[in-house]
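Here is one such tokenized protein:
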Amino acid sequence: MKWDSSKFGELCEALLSLNSNDEVRRFLRDLLTEDEIIEFTKRWQTARLLENCTPYTDITKITGLSSKTIARVALWLQKGKGGYKLALERLHQHTSHGVAASGLL
């Protein structure tokens, strides 16, 4: 199956149907293994650190990811489909409007 198949679209729709941080957490915990959750969390943390111009060596120390994985996240951050950038922008918007403080993120 290709990553952009209709089945992937159905997964995206399922994520969009969820209404809260808790619902997303529960869905992802059922969908993914603990190791997958940890890996995805580290990649997201890496994107946030790269956005703040954190050096690769520091990111490796913080996340435990290899420089190769960090470089891949950096590439996708700069030249990917725009998903990381969009999520980072939305996170900043929500945080500046107090949504994160309310527990929705």
